[in-house]
Structures are given as C-alpha cells and as structure tokens.
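re: that complex we talked abt at group meeting.

here r the seqs, copy pasted straight from the sheet so there may be weird spacing, ignore it
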Amino acid sequence: MVQSTQDADISLLNINQGITCLTSGVLNPQLGYDSLLVGTQTNLLAYDVHSNSDLFYKEVSDGANAIVLGTLGDISSPLAIIGGNCALQGFDYEGNDLFWTVTGDNVRSLALCDFDGDGKTELLVGSEDFDIRVFKEDEIVAEMSETETITALSPMYGSRFGYALSNGTVGVYDKTARYWRIKSKNHAMSIHAFDLNSDGVCELITGWSNGKVDARSDRTGEVIFKDNFASSIAGLVEGDYRMDGNTQLICCSVDGEVRGYLPGGEEMKGNLMDASAEQDLIRELSQKKQNLLLELRNYEENAKAELNTQLKEADGRRGVIPANTQLQTALSVNLGSDSQSAHVELCISTTNDTIIRAVLIFAEGIFEGESHVVHPSLQNLSGCVRVPLTPPKDVPVDLHIKAFVGYRNSTQFHVFELTRQLPRFSMYALSSPDSAAEPLSYVNCTMNERAQRIVMWLNQSFLLPEDAELQSAPFQVCFTSLRNAGQLCIKIKPGGEISISTDDIDLAGDIIQSMASFLAIEDLQVEADFPAYFEELRKVLVKVDERHAVNQRLTADMAEHSNLIRSMLVQAEDARLLGDMKNMKKRYIELYDLNRDLINQYKIRCNNHTELLNNLKAVNQAIQRAGRLRVGKPKTQVITACRDAIRNNNFNMLFRIMRVGTASS
Amino acid sequence: MGSWLGATRAAAHGCRGNGGAAAVGGAGPGAAERWGRRGAARRRRRRCAALLLAMELSLARVDYLQVGVTSQKTMKLLPASGRKATQKVVVGDQDGVITCFGIKKGEAVPVFKTLPGQKIARLELGGALNTPQEKIFVATGSEVRGFTKRGKQFLSFETNLTESIKAMHISGADLFLCASYIYNHYCDCKDQHYYLSGDKINDVLCLPVEKVNCITPVLACQDRVLRVLQGSDLLYEVEVSGPPTVLALNNGNGSDSGEEIVFGTSDGKVGLIQITGSNPVHKWEIGNEKKRGGILCIDSFDILGDGVKELLIGRDDGVLEVYNFESADDPVLRYDHALSESIASVQGGCVGKDGYDEILACTYSGWLTGLTTEPIHREGGSGEELKLSQEMQSKISSLRSELEHLQMKVLQEREKYQQSSQSSTAVSSVPAFSVNDKFTLNKDDASYSLILEVQTAIDNVLVQSDVPIDLLDVDKNSAVVSFSSCDSEPNSNFLLATYRCQANTTRLELKVRSIEGQYGTLQAYVTPRIQPKTCQVHQYQIKPLSLHQRTHSIDHDRPMNTLMLKGQFSFAEIHSWVVFCLPEVPEKTPAGESITFYFQNTFLGTQLESTYRKGEGFFKSDNISTISILKDVLSKEATKRKINLNISYDINEESVRYTLKLIHPKLEYQQLLAKKVHLIDALKELQVHEGNVDFLLPKYRSILEEADQLLEEYKKQPAHLERLYGMITDLFIDKFKFKGTNVKTKVPLLLEVLDGCDQDGLIAFFEAAA
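got the structure back, here u go
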C-alpha cells in the first residue's frame, strides 16, 4: 500500500491486474474490523488494511465477476462468496474453500437474503442466462426467469429483494413473485436498499446511466425521491461517512461527484416529494375524469354513427368498421421453404373485408428489441398477416399483440389488443415416429402419473397440430427441432416409466424441469446417457489438463527469461559505464529481442488462459446440465458428487455420476 | 402496455418534473452534501445563482380546471369589475365551448358556458376604445361571435371568407381576420381592406390606433416575414430570423410610441421590432440557446411588482418563461417553469386570490394552470393551513364521487358497445382525438424534430419510414424505444420503431436525420390510452432537398451552377414540383407571373436560388449535388406527368472548388474535435497518475481544460463528421456525373484524402480525378 503523492488521505493498493469486483466487511470475526476483498479475473485477494498485509491470496480459475460477503445458511464463519464463469465459490478468512457449486451461466450479480424466512440467509445469483437462482447452501430452491442479464441484486427487507437488468429494467421480488418492475431507456448502474424516508422500510435506490438517482417504494415502485447528477452514476453505498452517527446514502458519479443523503426526519411522514402532492392527486383525478368523459363521448358518437348504418367511403377513411369485426389469431409450426427457414407462424386475420394496417407484437426475449412490427406496404395490404417467430430459448412467452384494423385509405384505425402465449417448446414440430433414426442419447425415469396428465402437459407445452389423441400408455411422440432438425422422442411405457430421447442435453433438462413443475414432482432421480456429449466433455477435460501444463511451462519460461533479462541489463549497463558502446548496443538489441519474445509469450499465455477459462466453463456447465436432468435432492447430490470426482481427477467416476446420479454402485 | 411491465405508473412519477431538489433541503438543512472533485465548486456557484433568482420570484402552481383541447391564443382574463379585484377567466376550446369562470375559495365557479359547436380558433377581448375591454369575441370556422361578459351572445358575424379563420385581432370597431393566406379588415362588420399574402399567415396585429393615429396591421407570415400593411397594400416587409408564430404589443400597448411589437418564432426566438411609418427598427432578440420549444403566446405583466411589466412567454414544449428588463433593450430571464404540455395561451393577472398576482396559462389539453405569488403554505396560524387542506379534501372527495358516477356510466356504455359487436349490421366508428404535431428542421444540427402531443396520455407510437433515416435519441423523451427488423423488399420499410410511453406522457419528441436526395414519407401511428383503443396515422414528407431552409437573401458573388428547365408546363405545375422538392415553400401557387425563392443548406451553408414561371425555371446553386438532386427529381416528376422537359445545365468548375473551401473549415474543425475528444481520456489518466499537468505541452493542457466543452460539443453533433464525408463524396460523384464519368471506384481514394485533411490536396484530388 502506498500513500498517494497528491492527497495525503488517500492510500493506493496496486493489484497489477484488472479488478472485477470489490467488497469489504467482517471476514474474520476475531479481527474486530473489516477486511478488504478484491477479485480479479484469476485471483481473489483478502487484505487486512490495518496491518497492511494479505489475509489470503487465492487463485480462482473461474474468475470473480461478482462478490458478496456474509454468512450463508448453516456455515458458521462468514464467507466471501465469488461468482465466476458458471461457478460459485465461498472462502472463509483462512482462504478455505467451504462452499462450491455451479450455476447455469456466467454469474453477474450476487446477494445474500433470507429468501424463505427461516432466519438463515440464502444466496441469490443473477447470471447471463437471464435467470435469478436461489441457493440454500448448495441446493437450488428457486429459479426465476428474467428477460435480460441480471446486472445487480440487492436484498431489501425480509424475503424481498431488488434487481436490475442490462436492458434498463429494475424491480422488486418478494420470494418468487415479482412485486413490480419498471423499464427505462437508461441503464441502472447500481441499486441499493436504503430507508430514505424513515418509514422503517427500505426503498430501492437506483443510480442510472443518465445521472439520475431515484428512490422507489418497495411495494409499488412509486418514486418518492429523485436527484440528478451531471454524469452517469458510478455507485451507491451507505455508511457513516462523516462519523456523526448518522448513516447516509452516498452516491458517486463517473465524473467523481459525490453526494450524501441523510434519511428524512420523522416530521416528513414519509412524504419526500414536495407539498404539491395533493395538487398532483387532483390533477390525476381530473385526468381520469377527462378520459372517462372522452370514452363516453366516443360511445355517443358511435351510437350516432350507428344510426346510419350505410358504410360510406368517407366513413372508411375515418375508420368506421363493422361492429362485428373480429381478430383471429392462430399459432402453427411452419416447416419453412427454400427462402425461409422453419419457424413458428403467428397468423392474424380479420373476419371481414377490413384490412390490417400494421401489427405490433410486444414480447420479451424473442425479438431484438422488446417489440416486432409488421407494416405491409400499401399494395400488400390484406386482412391477414403472417408473422414468423423464432424464439431463441425454450421459455414460454406472452405475445402482446396490437393490430391496427381499418380500411385501405383509413387515417384512423381500431386497435385490437390481445395476448397469446407461445408454448414453451413451440420450436418443435410433431413428426412421425419412424421418420428418422431415434437419437442415441436418452433420459429414463419413472413418474407415478397417469398418461392423461402427461398428455395435458404435452398439449400445454408443444404446438400440436390438433389436440393429441388421448392415448393410454404405452405411447410415443416424436418431434423435430425447427432450429437444428434434431430429434426428440418421448415414450411413455406402462408403469409410469418415461423415456426422453434427444441428443440435446439442455433440451432434456428443460423437459424434465417443465414436467416436474407441471406434475408437481419434488424429487426425481433419472438414468441418463449422452454418449456424444460425454465424449466431448472428455475431450474438454483432457484439454483442461493440457492447458494447465502449458500454463506451468510458460510460467517457468517466464521466470527463466526474467533472470536472463537481469543479467543482460547488468552487462549492458556495465558496457555503457566502460564506454564500450558497441557491446552496449549489442546487449540492448538482444534485450529488445528478448522483450519481443516475452511479449509474444505473453500473448500465448493470454490465449491459453482464455481457452482454459472457456474449457472450465464448459465443465461447470456440464455439471449444471447433469443436475438439471434431476429434480430436488438427487439434483444437489449429482452436483456435489461431480465436484468431488473432478477434485479427485476421476473422470470415469464423473461420467458414471452423470449417468446414474450417484457415485456408489 | 403498462400492465405487463407492472407498475409503469410509477415510472411516470419519475418523469414528471417537479422539484425533487427542494426535498433534499427538506430532509434537513444541509442534508445533501457535495464533495465533487472536479467542477463541483462551479456547479455549486451555479446552483446558488439559481437559488437567488428563485428567491426573487417563487411561484406556486395551482391547477384550476380542465376544458377541451385549446388552440393558440384562446384564453383571456376579463378586466376586474366593480370592487372585486379578482378577474374572471374566459377560454374557448376546440369543442366550440366558451367557458367563463372565476375562482372562489380555490374552487372554479362557472359564470357561463356555451354549447358545443365548431372549433374555436381564437378568442379576443374588445370594446369601445378607452373603455374596459370586456366583450368576448371568438373566431369559429368563418364566423365571428361576440358575447357579453355574462355570456349573452350579441354578435354573430358570418364573414365572406371561404376558409376558416386562423387569426383575429380586435381594436374598437375594427376587426382584423386572417385565413390561411387571406387578410381581411372589417369596420363595423363592413368589408374594408383585403390582402393576399405570399405564405401562410400565423398571426395578425394592429398597432394601437389611439397612439399611431392610423390603422397599421401587421401580419406574421410563415416565410419568416412580418408584413406591414396600409389599407389593402403592403407597406413593407420585415425580415425576421424564424417563422413568426405569434405577435404581441410590447407592454400590452406598443410602448409609448405604440409602435413596438414583440414577435415569437416557431424555432423559439423572441424579438422586439419598432414598426415606424417607413421602416422597421430591430430592438433586441432573444436567441434559443437552450433549444427550447417554439413560442405560442406572449403577454406583458408586472409579476415581480417592480413597476415594470415583465414579458411572459409560453412555449410549445411546456416551458413558461418570465423575462424582465434591467434596461429597455436588455431582457433577462428571471423565472421559468416547465409544464408537461404546450402552453397555448398565457396572461398575467389576479385570479385565485385577491391581492396575489399570478400567471395563468392554458395548455393544449385545456388545463388552466396558475403560477401564483400566493404561498401555498401560509405561515400564519395553523388554523388556516387546516382550512386550506380542507378545501383540498372537499375538492378531492367531490372529484372522487364524480368519478365513481362516471365510471358507472362508462361501464354501462361499454357493455352496450360490446353488445353491438354481436350485430351484423352495426358499425363501430373510431373516436376522433386530436393530435398536435410539428415536424420542423433544426438549423443547428440539420436534423428534423417531430413533436407529437395528444390530449390524453399516449400509449405507444409506431414510427415507420420508407426512406433510410436515422432516429436519434432525445434526452427529454422517456419512452422506451425498440427498433424492429425491417424488410425493405417487398414492403419498403426502412425504419420501424415503437416508442412505448411511460404513463402520463402526453407529449413525445423524436429526432430524425435525413439524407438529401433520399425522399419519401415518414409515418407516425399514435395510439393514446383511451377506450376503445384506436390509433391515428400522421404523415410527414421527407423532401429531396430536406436540409434546405428558406432565407431572405443569398450571396450572389459565389460561383454558381445553373439548371435550366424549359417545356410545356404551367406555373402551377412547376410550383408543385418545387413544393415537392423543397421544404418551407407555400403550397398555394404564388400570385404574379414568376417567383424567386432563396434557400440555404443548413448543414453545409451552400445556397440555392430558384426562379420560375410558366414554361421555364432556373435553379442556381454553388453546390453541384443540389443541382444534381434537383435534376433527377424534376425530370422524374415531369416524366410522371408526361411533360416533355428540356433540361440544360451550366456547370461552373470554380463552384466545386468554392464549395470545398466552404466545407473544408468545418471538416477540419470536426476532425480536430474528434481527435481532441479521442485524447481526453488518455490525458485525464496521465493527470491522475502524475498529479499535475505542468509537463504537458500547452496544446494538450488546453484540451484538458476545455474537456467538458469539447465533450459537450461532440455529443451535440453525433455523426457530424460522417455526414460531412458523405456529402463531400456526393459532391465528388455528382461533379463527374455531369461530365458523364462514373468515379465510384475512386471513392476509397477520396476517403483517404479526406482523412489527410489537407484542403489543397482535396481540391487537387477533385481536379485530377478525371
């Protein structure tokens, strides 16, 4: 740690690596003061600022994208939990790795929160696959799907927590239910829970990319306070910065402007907005009244229009359409043609001679933005619009459809609004069982369920041409993926035995999870085999070893080179002092060459490292996928067992666990 | 859409702009501290200055009442009568209803209300000269009606105008009316004088007769000219800097001479001009540096109580401003307040409570809002405060019960409507709602802004364009924009974007950047949050020479290229082609045999002169690209109508060099700016590391010092450099197109030369490339 040259009260600690996350807090309860924790792409440093020494310095191969400090579940000592590429790791003050598990994708945000109200904290993990997962120690107790990467999580009060997404959404969850959310065109840079209005409940404070800071009620999302900075907010924290016993909310902008806010006093009664709240209420009520009056007038005018029922040209322009016009929608699977790839087709049509001027579909996660527009040119107008949809992920999506219905020359249109749900597995088309070879990979399990219930699940989750005939077990359905033509077969055998054959391990996991939640199954053990995937994984594991070896060799080389540099530099300087310019030049040229070599080596090291990271991520993902094939306790068991197998470098054991779910035979 | 994103209402709360900063103070004195490292002191100073001003004039906002949608200048305060000091308010809306009310104990008490009818375009007060002006006159359609202050109609004057009245002024027995292009003067309802203007008339005024002793009407015309008339003839024209939208007498009476008028323009400027008998004298002008909205209404009133009347200005972006005068020619902004929608009318007076002056504004959607000097929380006994909130409470509860009643009724009607959808003969009409839109070219950054305002909250807006255009981000706009993928074939969509508005957004501002030579239509589908849900489509033309703006004069000494057209076409035909090609040209064919318009390219500063008559047209420009675009579009238009055109052109080689010299400083400046901005981060890093910047070269030190301004400027003109490159490339291609050579292959070379940023090299390249 170095005292800064310009400011006596600033001390600098140089890490020599890009810092990816930072926190401070009580890590060692015996120490009696806070420790500093610094995460980088490869290491975690726990630092004792008071004695200017390291507590521990750990290599974390999965990187540290996010960090949180606190106690987790029944683990007694405080942990520094870091989230990296698909992995979560927790260290105590001695650097012992007391907690480890995997998650679906790169972790972007972490928080500790008493999610189920049992007095012990659970870990919330927000990751790049848009999911918020809740870990009760290493068991996943809940999973919430969001619409974008979760960039921030903040515990608020009890089981309530705030979250922020990379698309400008912030909101509050209570357990698995979303209380509210709002979306802004700006991005939330930082969120924090702080009781600004002294009502005993924390508000969600958000720092935005446009420099706005706002405090929103945890219950309604209503803004109770806001302020503006000249530039984007860099971070929000709370603390007693002035050492006067009052905790402040402190906001810092990227320009370096810092403002502190004290909570409002008792007399404010939670009302931080100015006194014109009543005025605003009156305004709001009047606006409502005006809207109602407007609506009434609309109906009156409509009644007038009804008196002369003859549809005239001019009426068409004004947007008068027959009252019995209806909008029909149909979802179907389109297998595509030469010019168009296979897709799910949404067909929207009117029931008479009216035309659809434009269709707006608002849906999350299936378009580039939040909406998709179909606007045919004037000559292509008709009463029917077909919209191709290709959801990239297997999640159920609500399609909020707005269709502008009128006539060709209308300047005003009726807006028909309706919502359709796109089933979870809509990108799979029903195919005949014998059309293609059945995939080699499979998952087998036993569910004590009637076949009818499974047929219900099929109807709900797939786009079936007509309702699948109610069949008694055994029966078999086959699907073809519209994305990559992969096959999927679901066989129901008598005795509740179910077999799912597909080469896509993710899809198998999704199907198991979807069935389990539909049929309310708590624990499910399966037998699985994915030969192709396992083979790939084996290769990856070999690669990981190779990379590790390369890394070691490179490190050794580097050490050697640095010795060489030292001696060369001494020689060169000697030559300079002796006035032997020729030799000096020679040495320096050599040094230059060596330097170039080092730089090249460094590049190789970098590449090697990225490669290693990718491979490690693949391994973590594999464990997570193996877990997703099971439900409940077996799921946790698989993950822990896999970890142990990897620790012991026992690959055969690993694959065995992935297949049957346990280590022991 | 609000429902699927949960509590979107809350988001709107965040957008409505009332004083959050004050609440910081409220959280305890000095509750908010600032430890800014950079520029904090400056910011603090600015804050203090703002605070001082606010102390001088602090006005509290009161919303009185909402009427229908209102047009510009349709609200007036009646003079106080008898011993009562408070004034009555009279307002006319687009439903044709005139509402007159006074305020008693904070409640609006109606005096009279007329029945609905045609849209009211203007409302003015009149009366015999030198008596209180308390007769109410409204212009609806082509008719002028007069009402007494009690609401009794005493006049219904059906004018002989074929169009509806757009502007009106009343002075004693003299009535001045304007339709789109026609001005008419009546005295005692008898036709006196008539004038046909070259462009649309936005407002009319007459200098006070009692002071200037002759009738001197002034017309504010769209072609950036005030036309001063005498009888039926034009006395002279006054050129102003933007299209004037509103006129007012300075101090309400034209000052001592009676000759001073204040005008406001649609690009947000305000100026004072003295109209003497022979020539105009420009006194002062307030620019629009803050890029606020266009001016809709002006009034003079002494709200500060210092004995001098202040200037009150209402803008179309909802900003209300108060200027006062330290000296007669130096207006200083004293106060501003942002309402959420455009301010159609403004007047100062005493309305809410005896003894407290206030500014009353009437907004587009018909809200009558007062900014009063009466403090909201009186510091007297607690009893009074209680009473005040009781008033509020009763107001709120009465509103609530009214709402409940309405809700019931609406539910019934809704059911009826639903039932009608079962019948096969019934029709369903779309409720009409009014959209206030404005599509204008901004001179500063050569982009178009599209402003959409609806009387109720907007749900979403779909923007579609069949030409390639860029949609730019607007800070004020809080709506969530989402771009949809486009299919240029076969549906000719080049832009499809949806704006999903936060709750309570009634006004939406978009910014669009066009490319000259690419023309077509921009369409906006506006869906408000009213039931039954409907949407309205509005179309805006992107013209071939979209970045050109009308000017009063051009520099005739520049080397010009000429395009000559000859053929069997009428004056009206060639005029319609010019209207098609260029913005700001009146649609009506001008009177006379020939006409000349001057234009300036807002981006490059090049110019265009167009002179045409029946059978021939001349277009002169120093920019070859302009001529090239005109040639292409005109020949296409003529072919469409099967008219044989004889097109000849006279290309002046010198003009290319001249234009390049004109552009080059801009290019150099932008390249330098880009370079400097590029360096800022690195320099800042150095500064932090080294602790000081003494070791840097002065030029780098100055970059650091000016970093904020540089960044701001850079941010203000996104893609400026790219656009310049594009236009120079066009110039290059067009130059050789006229020679019959295709030089598209040489464009990469040109770009290299451009990066070199050497003027002589560039000119040499242009000359050598052939």
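couple things i noticed - Helices of chain A lie at 277-307, 313-318, 451-461, 505-518, 531-578, 581-628, 633-647, 651-660. Chain A touches chain B through 109 residues (CB under 8 Å).
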